[in-house]
Write a structure and sequence with these properties.
rod-shaped, 65% helix, mainly alpha, 4 helices
């Protein structure tokens, strides 16, 4: 049963998160800031609503989006490295069990200790009655 679960889990395809390429709100903010600056570069509408503060918020979002995209690239690279290492480990798992099998045999307790199923303990396949 656990082997079946492993096989099902190992076939799950994980898609990378999408990067934030085109943020419409950010584009709208840049366009609006240009319009506001054409009115007055030092426009102050009260309650700290100024062209300068507006520009600072836009720049903050740009920085965060850029940082987010950079981190996603790093995570994708790390994920690919993990998947490559997992493939190496799968190969080693097979090689270790095969080595124990060839040295001690398939019906040995050592083979069972290494994670194999002893030949004498395997269920005999039953033929279905027609």
């Amino acid at each position: 049963m656990s082997k079946i679960k492993f096989l099902l889990i190992s076939k799950v395809v994980v898609m990378a998160r999408k990067k934030l390429g085109r943020v419409l709100v950010l584009e709208k903010g840049r366009t609006r800031l240009a319009g506001v600056k054409s009115i007055s570069p030092t426009l102050d509408l009260g309650n700290d609503v100024t062209a300068e503060n507006y520009e600072a918020v836009i720049e903050s979002v740009e920085t965060k989006v850029s940082l987010y995209n950079t981190h996603l690239s790093t995570v994708d690279d790390l994920y690919n490295a993990c998947m490559a290492e997992i493939e190496i480990l799968k190969d080693w798992n097979d090689r270790i069990l095969s080595g124990v099998k060839s040295k001690y045999g398939t019906d040995s307790s050592e083979y069972e200790m290494a994670g194999g199923v002893r030949k004498s303990e395997r269920k005999k396949p039953r033929r279905s009655q027609k």
